[in-house]
Amino acid sequence: MIETLSRPRTLRGELAVPGDKSITHRALILNALAAGSATVRGVARGADCRATAACLRQLGVELSEAGPETMLIGDGAGFAEPAEPLDAGNSGTTMRLLTGLLAAQPFRSFITGDDSLRRRPMDRVIEPLSRMGADIRSVAGDGRAPLEINGGRLKGIHYALPVASAQVKSAVLLAGLAAAGETVVEEPHPTRDHTERMLQAMGADIDCQPGRIAVRPGPLEAMDLTVPGDLSSAAYWLVAAALHPDAEIVVRGVGVNPTRTGIVDALVEMGADLSVEAERLAGGEPVADIRVRSSGLRGITIGGSLAVRCIDELPLLAVAAAMAQGVTEIRDAGELRVKESDRIATTAAELERMGVDIRERADGLVIRGRGRLDGARCSSHGDHRLALTLAIAGLVADGVTEIQDAEAVDVSYPEFWDDLARLAGSERVDAGSRRRAGRDRKSTRTAQR
Question: Could you tell me which residues come within 8 angstroms of residue 447 by beta carbon, excluding any fewer than 6 positions away?
Answer without folding.
Answer: none
